Amino acid sequence: MTDANTLDTEAVSQWLSTHLDDFSGPLTAEKFAQGQSNPTYLLKTPTRDYVLRRKPAGVLLKSAHAVEREFRVQKALAASNVPVAHMHVLCEDTSVIGSAFYVMDAIKGRSFGEPTMPSLAPAERHAVIDEMNRVLAAIHDVDITAAGLADYGPEGNYYARQISRWAQQYEASQTTKIPDMTALIDWLQNNMPEDDGQRTLVHGDYRIDNLLFAPDSAQISAVLDWELSTIGHPYADLAAVIMQWSMPQGAEGRGLLGVDRAAHGLMSDEEFIAAYCARRGLSGIDNFGFYLAFSYFRMGAILQGVLKRALDGNASSPDQAKRLGAYVPAFAEAGLKAARTVT
Q1: Cα 205 from Cα 241, distance rounded (Å)
Q2: Three-state DSSP class for 140?
Q3: 28 CB contacts (<8 Å, ≥6 apart)?
Q4: pTM listed for this prediction
Q5: pLDDT tens by residue, 171-199
Q6: CA 70, 72, 74: angle at the middle one, nearest 5?
Q7: What GO molecular function terms would the record report (predicted)?
Q8: What is the pLDDT of residue 230?
């Protein structure tokens, strides 16, 4: 944790004292180092701990950092098979701390910063990855109508909508010309598969470091960071997992590049996709290269926004943001490579 972006704990405490049942101060806050997009804090009181997520300071891109949506979707999933933290209160009054924020339960559990999970034995790693797979399928199997989320995303072709949105976001945050990114956007716009009618809840950033696991088992205790969630096409989430694993090992790449997965108890891409299809009753996935290319593109656009905020002085962790932003050309190149695998 770090002391950057200090939270006005007095203002938060005063607001919670009138909006959160059984709240009792005094309140202290520690900022989590993770979370480039929406600053996140551990709130400590004499009786219990909470977690607060807020929008970052400064001028924000349109529709970005939607903590209001994060609150809504996690609240809607409380009775589902998707593990989420209990949502307490949402504050949309920006006069309190300068931005919207919400408060949820602090979940005790284990987090893994990268999928290599060096502290675990091979069998334990396999169980964790299989649990990731199970919960991803559960997200996509949520009855969005029963959960009150049917209007959580627009109708129509999800990829057309997402490519248009992220191309605009990318252009708005562009700091230098990246020809591969331009070529990737053009390819995606001209090679979208026909809409197959699948319309599910999509997490939007499903990876191991956005999951909390039980202290003594592979069970997921909570899926975190729902900022990019919407109603869309499930293969975007699945491809995003495979995309992440292609990245270099380490705290920033958070990938499995060069890892002997079988020796480490980790699923291959093909095994993970097959397990997902089995859980959802699918015979297979055609043209997976398109979904993978889309995932590289969107992550490149996201990291470009992270870099722009760092250069503008609005990043949650500026130095890390600049390092992450340096990956944008690599994501564009990898996206074009994935595009060439489409048959």
Answers
A1: 9
A2: helix
A3: 9, 43, 44
A4: 0.89
A5: 999 989 999 999 999 999 999 999 899 99
A6: 70
A7: kinase activity
A8: 95
Q: CA angle at residue 70 from 114 to 171, to 5 degrees?
A: 75
CB 39 within 8 A of CB 54: yes
Domain 122-339 matching CATH 3.40.50.150: the answer reads: no
135-149, 289-303, 305-319: the lowest-pLDDT one: 305-319
Alpha carbon 165 to chain centroid distance? 17
Distance CA(176)–CA(168), nearest Å, equals 15
Residue 83 CB partners (closer than 8 Å, separation 6+) = 135, 219, 220, 221, 222, 223
Tokens 């993970």 sit on residue: 272
H-run or E-run covering 58? none
Question: What CA–CA distance (Å, rounded) separates 171 from 180?
Answer: 14
Per the prediction, the chain carries an average pLDDT of 91
**Helix runs in 84-200, H state only:** 122-140, 158-173, 179-190
Structure letter (DSSP) for residue 83: -
Is the bond preceding 39 in cis, omega lying within 30 degrees of 0? no
CB atoms near residue 63 (< 10 Å)? 10
Angle between helical axes of 328-339 and 179-190 (0-180°, round to 10): 40
Residue 19: name the closest of 87, 80, 81 by CA: 87
Nearest residue to 265 via CA among 61, 122, 56, 116: 122
Cα–Cα distance between 45 and 105 in angstroms, integer?
A: 12
* Residue extents of the structural domains in the chain: 9-105, 122-339
Which CATH number applies to 9-105? 3.30.200.20
Estimate to the nearest angstrom the gap between the alpha carbon of 61 and the chain centroid: 17
Of 137, 109, 105, 139, residue with least CA distance to 23: 105
Answer with the residue of higher pLDDT: 269 or 59.
269
- If 0-12 CB within 10 Å is exposed, 13-18 middle and 19+ buried, where does residue 263 land? exposed
Q: What is the 3-state secondary structure (H, E, C) of 9-43?
A: HHHHHHHHHHHCCCCCCCCEEEECCCCCCCCEEEE
Take residue 17 and report the two structure tokens written for it: 């004292």
